């Protein structure tokens, strides 16, 4: 029998509030703040400080970091959210439900900029591959690709109500594109370094761009040509002036508020400058005051000059009455926002600010926090701060209590207690730099710090009860001492430190504090002196042996009761950073900075197997309780699952975006928890799905082959070919595994349908010749559909964004077969749009061959007439579609009124009855 194992899959990710690689922005309603959290998005309710909606990707694409976010305007028809990812893909999300509506593939490297058009129906995306792609959000497909930039596209803005697009890049240029004619209108230079951001106000008066230059450049936006102006010399952007900046760091983000009265310039540091944008009246008034002061200075100089016998020309009267407005008359520095840490991104709230405030500004910091400020004319005040849901730095240790319902994590300044089932933060306790931790029952916890102190924490009250100067160096390990019956931590614990000591501690009787609550205290009972720094300590489950890993790359094993030397394990080329002993005490596994795992026998200290486990240092390794299966984590960002008896890799779990420092396993082995340098805590659950070693090996080989194929075919880090043509337009999509699979599905469906048609013709021929024939047995694969309907179902099942690339991959013979079905498909009203799109792509791709192939001429002639008529009918149907129900309702009302008019009036009937009654009386 082939041995089967149970698969582990990602279940929960928590601890990340805002990742520094992504920007922040408000959702279409303006109530929630969107922040990228590694591979997912979160919509935060700032008042409550809680995540309202989580936008989580599928597990297959969990390692793709979010690089940029954009939300559709509040006035748009659709309320969509777009996120750009590390592989260049764009995902569209529903703002209310948090579900992923579409994944758009087009860029060859990471997406760097996103912007919705004012209508919300078009999305522009820029990337590190230097291209700009326009997407149809409704059809979920690409429109066209704009090429011309020579470096990464950093920001995008729409102009002229979405008819034009401005893009800036690290190549120091701004390009203005006409989206109707799909060509570059203007190339704007002037910046002396890379342009990092730009934005335009709501009334489209000014465009402000920022770079590493010591000033911001402001452009006036011209909507139309002046009388007699040459078209070839007409510019959309015209330089208005330069604003000197306060900071020397480069500009990171430039953003206007909703009404365009404020503009924020955030630098790659701790400050953000907020400028007031004056309207035309105020700007003219300020210009006149400036000219008045200039006049006073000139008059003073002239008086001095007259005394000296010289003459100075007076200022022109026209300049005094109608002075020219300069950029300093319009843009005035209002406030400087100074944050405690480096600012990663800023965003103005589109909703109405609180009374007495000019605007509300939210920022994300690189220490995993979000802050919201109110901006007024006098000061910038902090309103909200979201920081409880994550650590300020990387997570160095994680541990579970005995019941697996509490999780503890440590970082450089705090200890957090979590609910591992939901990811909710229950307690936050200030502490030192915790390198290791352990629970004592369910009420107390121990933390070993980098400074050598041992901290005792009361979990119930969330307080630090005692700090013990335990070691002179960093405490690297805290290991509970198990009893002979396997009870963990009942007798005490052991600490290993960089001061060459291994200390044994016992719990003393609980002392009572001032409020009569019992507190834990510990005392040192034994000390084992070592010759080198202690990097890791492990104790066998029965408490018979203790293993100590030293800086000299060796592991020494001692008897627990007498502390006599038992074994020395040597063979690692670099220091051993972690180790663990199996439940039966038969095996010990060591993980080292030399990237290897070594499995040893505890009886003779022989090395059973040395495994090249990770592509970087192995940081932690743990056995699953009551098994010889083990998990290891490393600096290569992966979590690996091993069989220590067969020395086989069972599973590789990917998801972390930085070095994985630590892991812990539940007592039943049903889930594991890992902590990483990316500040995330991830839980991986054991499922009921079985996995087999041979199948996993085949999958890994296929993934390696496909990755090599992608590296050969795609330009992951930019274009390898020559620079693109000036302002050229290209196909929006790109070739992916999905498009290749879709093309194969179409070709397979065409072959199946052709075989079925041959069988049908053969059956009809036999029926004609013999008079009677056996009953025709249709192909089971076609599921009862006709050949034409079968091919139509396959083509319709392809995602709109992948259809174009799939059709481009078809050879001419298959394209000709596919076009033969278009005539029949066009009779279906709901498929006319699909037929037109397929026909257009095939005509553009195979135009030369189609025009020179005699068999295709008649087909093209028929399609020309049929498609024209069908599209005309479809447009006519859609034109009155909004009024069709109203028209039917109106006809019903008219019929009802006509029926009532035909009937005799009710009053006349009553009069007749009265007359009849009076006559009878």
| Distinct helical segment count | 14
The total strand number stands at 59
- Cα radius of gyration in angstroms: 36 Å
The percent range for strand residues is: 35-45%
Write a structural description.
By secondary structure, the chain is an alpha+beta fold. 23% of the residues lie in helices and 39% in strands. The protein has 14 helices and 59 strands. It has a five-stranded antiparallel beta sheet. It has a four-stranded antiparallel beta sheet with strand order 1-58-57-56, covered by helices on one side. The longest helix is centred in the last third of the chain and has 34 residues, at 737-770. It is globular. It starts with a strand and ends with a helix. The model is unreliable at 714-723 (pLDDT under 50). WD repeats lie at residues 59-103, 104-137, 146-187, 188-229, 388-428, 569-610, 611-652, 653-685. Residues 743-770 form a coiled coil. Residues 788-874 form the Small-subunit processome Utp12 domain. Residues 909-921 have a biased composition (Basic residues). InterPro entries: SSU_processome_Utp12 (IPR007148), TBC1_cilium_biogenesis (IPR051570), WD40/YVTN_repeat-like_dom_sf (IPR015943), WD40_PAC1 (IPR020472), WD40_repeat_CS (IPR019775), WD40_repeat_dom_sf (IPR036322), WD40_rpt (IPR001680).
């Amino acid at each position: 029998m082939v041995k089967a194992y149970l698969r582990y899959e990602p279940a929960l990710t928590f601890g990340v509030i805002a990742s520094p690689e992504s920007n922040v922005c408000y959702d279409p309603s303006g109530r929630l703040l969107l922040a990228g959290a590694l591979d997912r998005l979160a919509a935060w309710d700032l008042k409550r400080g809680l995540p309202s909606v989580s936008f989580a990707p599928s597990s297959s694409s969990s390692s793709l970091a979010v690089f940029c976010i954009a939300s559709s305007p509040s006035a748009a028809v659709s309320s969509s959210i777009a996120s750009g990812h590390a592989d260049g893909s764009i995902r569209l999300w529903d703002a209310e439900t948090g579900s992923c509506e579409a994944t758009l593939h087009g860029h060859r490297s990471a997406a760097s900029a996103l912007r919705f058009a004012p209508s919300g129906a078009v999305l522009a995306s820029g990337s590190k591959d230097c291209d700009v792609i326009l997407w149809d959000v409704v059809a979920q497909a690409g429109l066209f690709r704009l090429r011309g930039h020579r470096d990464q596209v950093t920001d995008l803005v729409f102009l002229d109500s979405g008819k034009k697009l401005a893009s800036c890049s690290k190549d120091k240029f701004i390009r203005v594109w006409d989206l109707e004619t799909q060509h570059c209108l203007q190339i704007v230079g002037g910046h002396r370094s890379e342009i990092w951001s730009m934005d335009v106000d709501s009334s489209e008066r000014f465009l402000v761009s920022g770079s590493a230059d010591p000033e911001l450049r402001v452009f006036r936006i011209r909507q139309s040509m002046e009388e007699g102006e040459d078209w070839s010399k007409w510019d959309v952007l015209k330089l208005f002036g330069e604003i000197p900046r306060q900071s020397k760091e480069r500009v990171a983000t430039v953003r206007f508020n909703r009404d365009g009265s404020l503009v924020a310039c955030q630098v790659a540091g701790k400050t953000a400058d907020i400028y007031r944008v004056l309207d035309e009246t105020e700007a003219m008034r300020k210009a006149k005051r400036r000219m008045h002061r200039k006049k006073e200075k000139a008059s003073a100089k002239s008086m001095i000059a007259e005394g000296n016998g010289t003459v100075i020309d007076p200022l022109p009267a026209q300049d005094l009455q109608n002075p020219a407005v300069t950029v300093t008359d319009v843009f005035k520095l209002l406030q400087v926002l100074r944050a405690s840490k480096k600012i990663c991104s800023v965003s103005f709230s589109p909703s109405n600010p609180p009374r007495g405030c000019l605007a509300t500004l939210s920022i994300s910091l690189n220490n995993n926090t979000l802050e919201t400020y109110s901006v007024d004319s006098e000061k910038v005040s902090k309103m909200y701060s979201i920081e409880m849901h994550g650590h300020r730095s990387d997570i160095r240790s994680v541990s579970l209590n005995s019941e697996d319902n509490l999780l503890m994590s440590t970082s450089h300044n705090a200890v957090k207690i979590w609910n591992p089932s939901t990811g909710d933060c229950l307690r936050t306790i200030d502490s030192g730099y915790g390198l290791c931790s352990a629970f004592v029952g369910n009420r107390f916890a121990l933390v070993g710090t980098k400074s050598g102190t041992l901290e005792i924490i009361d979990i119930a009250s969330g307080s630090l009860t005692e700090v013990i100067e335990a070691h002179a160096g960093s405490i690297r390990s805290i290991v509970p001492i198990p009893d002979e019956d396997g009870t963990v931590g009942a007798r005490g614990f052991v600490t290993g430190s960089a001061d060459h000591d291994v200390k044994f501690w016992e719990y003393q009787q609980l002392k009572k504090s001032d409020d009569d609550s019992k507190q834990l205290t510990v005392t040192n009972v034994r000390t084992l002196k070592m010759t080198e720094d202690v990097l890791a300590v492990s104790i066998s489950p029965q408490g018979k042996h203790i293993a100590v890993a030293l800086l000299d790359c060796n592991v020494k094993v001692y008897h627990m009761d007498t502390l006599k030397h038992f074994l020395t394990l040597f063979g690692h080329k670099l220091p051993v950073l972690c180790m663990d002993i199996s439940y039966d005490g038969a095996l010990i596994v060591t993980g080292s900075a030399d990237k290897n795992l070594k499995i040893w026998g505890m009886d003779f200290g022989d090395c059973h197997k040395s495994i090249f486990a990770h592509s970087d240092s192995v940081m932690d390794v743990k056995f699953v309780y009551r098994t010889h299966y083990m998990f290891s984590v490393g600096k290569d960002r992966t979590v690996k699952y091993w069989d220590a008896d067969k020395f086989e890799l069972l599973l590789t779990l990917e998801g972390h975006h930085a070095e994985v420092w630590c892991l812990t396993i539940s007592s039943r082995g049903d889930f594991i928890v890992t902590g990483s340098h990316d500040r995330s805590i991830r839980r991986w659950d054991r499922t009921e799905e079985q996995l087999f070693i041979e199948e996993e090996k085949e999958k890994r080989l296929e993934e390696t082959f496909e990755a090599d194929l992608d590296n050969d075919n795609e330009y992951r880090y930019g274009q390898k070919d020559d620079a693109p043509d000036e302002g050229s337009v290209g196909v929006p999509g790109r070739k992916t595994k999905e498009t290749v699979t879709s093309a194969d599905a179409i070709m397979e469906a065409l072959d199946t349908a052709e075989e079925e048609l041959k069988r049908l013709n053969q059956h009809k021929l036999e029926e004609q010749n013999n008079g009677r024939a056996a009953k025709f047995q249709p192909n089971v694969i076609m599921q009862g559909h006709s050949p034409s309907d079968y091919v139509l179902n396959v083509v319709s099942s392809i995602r709109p964004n992948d259809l174009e690339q799939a059709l481009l991959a078809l050879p001419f013979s298959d394209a000709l077969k596919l076009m033969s079905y278009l005539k029949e498909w066009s009779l279906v009203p709901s498929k006319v749009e699909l037929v037109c799109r397929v026909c257009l792509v095939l005509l553009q791709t195979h135009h030369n061959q189609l025009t020179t192939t005699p068999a295709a001429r008649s087909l093209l002639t028929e399609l020309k007439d049929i498609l024209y008529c069908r599209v005309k009918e479809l447009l006519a149907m859609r034109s009155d579609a909004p009024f069709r129900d109203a028209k039917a309702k109106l006809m019903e009302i008219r019929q009802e009124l006509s029926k009532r008019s035909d009937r005799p009036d009710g009053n006349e009937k009553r009069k007749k009855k009265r007359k009849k009654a009076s006559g009878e009386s």
